[in-house]
Amino acid sequence: MFLDSQLFDKFGVEYSPNDIIFCEYEPGNEFYFIQNGRVKIVKIINNTEKTLDILEVGDVFGEMAILEEQPRSASAIAMDHVKLLRFRRENFDALLQGNPQLAYKLLIIFSKRIYDAKRRLMILLLEEPQIKVMDVMCMLSEQDPHLDLQEAITLRVTMQEVANWAGMQIVDVQKILSHLNQLGKIELFNDRIVVKNIRDFQRMVSSRRKNMFS
Amino acid sequence: MSNGAMGQTSGIVTRRYKHGSIVYFENDKSEYIYILKGGRVILTSLKVDTGEEVKEEIKPGEFFGVKSSLGKYPREETAQTIGETVLLVLTLADFERLVLQNVNVVRKMLRIFSNQLRRIGKSQREVLGESESINPAEELFKIGEYYYKVGRVQQAQYAYKRYMEYYPDGKYSGPSMQRIRAIESGSTGGGDDFPPVGPAAPPSPPVRGDENVDFTDFSIDDEKPAAAAPSRSPLDDFGVDAASSSPLASEMDDFFSEGKSVDFDGDPFNGGDMNGKGGKGVAENFYAAMSKFSQEDYAGALALYSRILEVHNLKNDSEAKIFEKAHFEIGRCYLKLGKFTEALTAFSNMIKKFPSSENVKNALFHMGVVYESVKKADKAAAYYNRVIPMEPRDSINKLAAKRLKAIENG
C-alpha cells in the first residue's frame, strides 16, 4: 500500500512487540493499514490461543469495523515494532473522498476476503474430516497461480494451520496427514507439505461436494 | 454467446447481447467488469451451504462481475441476458479510473461487500458451532483470564483495562480491577479462577429417548409405499448423502486401500491395525463400506458396516468414533435399500446407544425421512420439528425445515 506519507502524520500509530492492538470481543470502530512490521491475528479457541493469520506490510485488518460497530472477532497483536495507519469509522467518508485510491484498494481487499471466507466455508461444510483436510490443500494450491498442478506441489503450511483452516483439532489433522503420508500421497515436513497429485484430491473433494446437495 | 456490435465510447466498450446470451459462466476466469445499460441480466449461483440455486436480477446502472475481477478469482455465478441487452464492458483499468472519480460508488460497494463478508462469517460460526448468543463483556473478561493464567500479563492487562473502560459497572469489574492491581504489583499471572465466570458453552439439549418411535404404528405392510424401490428415497431429491453415485467412487476406494491398512492413528511401527477379527481393521472396513455406499452397493456397504459392529475391542478413540458412525451408516444403508423398519430400528438404536453423539441430529432427521418414505407425514413432521431447533445449526437443520415446509404444503 503506497499511501501519502502525510497520512502517517495524521493517522499513524506505533506498537511494540507483543502489544495488543485490539482484543477479541472489544467493541471495534477503527481499522488499520500496516505500514511496517507484522501483526498476528489470534483467537482463543477451547482455551488455546490459535493464530489465524500473520499480516504484513500493505495488509489491512479490523476492516469489518468500517460499517458498523461490532465486537472484534479476533485479537490483533504486534509481532515486531509495528507502524500502522489507524482510521476511525466516523472519518471514513472523509478519508475516502480525499483518498480514492484507498477506496479502490479496499474494494480489492474485500473482494479477496469474501472469496477466501467463502472458500473456507466450503471446507467447513464438508462432512468427512479427511476430505476437509484434502480440501485445505486444494485451497492452498489455488492460491498460488504459478503452481503446476500436474506435478508434485509444495505447500508452505504447518499442521496447525491446516487444522485452523479445517476447523479441526490438530490431533485429528495429524492422524489424517500421517495416514496420507504413509500412503505416499503426501510428504510431511515441519513447515511444508508436498502433495504428489493434487488433481487426485481435487477430484475427490469435488465429487463429495457435488453429492452433498445433488 | 456475445453476438452483436461492439461500440467504442470513451475507452469503455458497449456490447449488445441477444436474449438468453451467456455473458459469462461460473468458474470462468476474466478481468472484465460489466454495467447493465439496457435490458435485463440474471445472475445464477449456488449457495455454498445449502446448494440452493439463487437468482439475482441486476438493475439498470448496476455493476456485476466486480468481485471476481478485482480478487482475480473464477466467476462465482453465471450471467445470462433476458431480452435484448446492452452492457458496458470495463477492464480493471477502466474500472479503477471510474471509481477514482466516484467515491460514492465505492462506498456503496464496500457496504455490500461488508455485509456479504459478515453473512459468510456468520455461516462459518454456525458450522463451527460457535454460539451467536455470546456476551461480549463476559468474553472480554475471559480473554483477560486466559492471558493471565498463561502468564502473559501484558496482554491480560490490556483486556482487563478494556473491560473496565467499556463496562465499568459490569459484572466482572471487581475481578478485573483486582487483576489489574495484581499485575501492577508484579504478579506474573497464573492465579486462581474467579468463580463467577459462567460455563463456557451451554450444555447441549438433552436428547429425548426414542419415545416417539412407535413401532406398533409403523407398519409398511398396510400401505405399500411407492418409495419402496431401493434406489429411490426422498433423500434423493434433496440429497443429504455425502456420497452417492459417482464415477470417482472407485478412485476413492483405491485411494484408501492401496494394499495398506488404513490406520488413522498413523503408527508406522504398528504395521497393519488389525483387530484380529476377519483380519480387517475397523478403519479399513469403514472406508471400504463408504466406498461401496458411494457406488450404490448398499447391501455391500451394509455388510461391511455390520462387521464393524461386531468388534468388541476397540483400540482407540478413532476406532470408537468409527464404531459410532457405523451405527448411523447402517440406518442409511437400510433406508437406501427400502428396508424402512430396519432403518428406523438402526437409527433409534444409534440414538439410544450414543445419546450425545454428534450424529444424533442427523439420525433424527433420517427417521423423519423414513416416516416420510412410508407416507406417515405427521410423524415425519414431528421428527423434522425436533431437528430444526437443534444445535449446532447446519445444513441438516435447513434440510429439515425444507422437508417440513414441503410436507405442510402437501
Please characterize this protein's 3D structure.
Chain A has 214 residues and is of the alpha+beta class. Chain A is 43% helix and 26% strand. Chain A has helices at 5-11, 92-98, 100-125, 129-143, 159-166, 170-182, 198-213, and strands spanning 12-15, 20-22, 27-28, 30-36, 39-45, 48-55, 60-61, 70-71, 75-78, 82-88, 153-155, 186-188, 193-195. The radius of gyration of chain A is 19 Å and the shape is elongated. The termini of chain A are far apart. Chain B has 410 residues and is of the alpha+beta class. Chain B folds into three domains: 6-128, Jelly Rolls (Sandwich); 136-184, no CATH class; 226-408, Tetratricopeptide repeat domain (Serine Threonine Protein Phosphatase 5, Tetratricopeptide repeat), CATH 1.25.40.10. Chain B is built from 15 helices and seven strands. In chain B, strands 1, 2, 3, 4, 5, 6 and 7 form a seven-stranded antiparallel beta sheet that branches. In chain B, helix 9 runs antiparallel to helix 10, helix 9 (282-294) runs parallel beside helix 11 (317-336) and helix 14 (377-387) runs antiparallel to helix 15 (395-408).
Helix content of chain B: 40-55%
Q: In oligomeric terms, what are we looking at?
A: heterodimer
Q: Describe the strand arrangement of the main beta sheet of chain A, using strand numbers.
A: 1-10-4-7
Biggest β-sheet of chain B: count, sense, barrel?
7 strands, antiparallel
The major beta sheet of chain A can be summarized as:
4 strands, antiparallel
What portion of residues of chain B belong to β-strands?
A: 5-15%
Do you know the CATH architecture of the largest domain in chain B? Alpha Horseshoe
Mean pLDDT of chain A: 87
The geometry of chain A reads as elongated
Helix content of chain A: 40-55%
Return the domain count of chain B: 3
The low-confidence parts of chain A are none
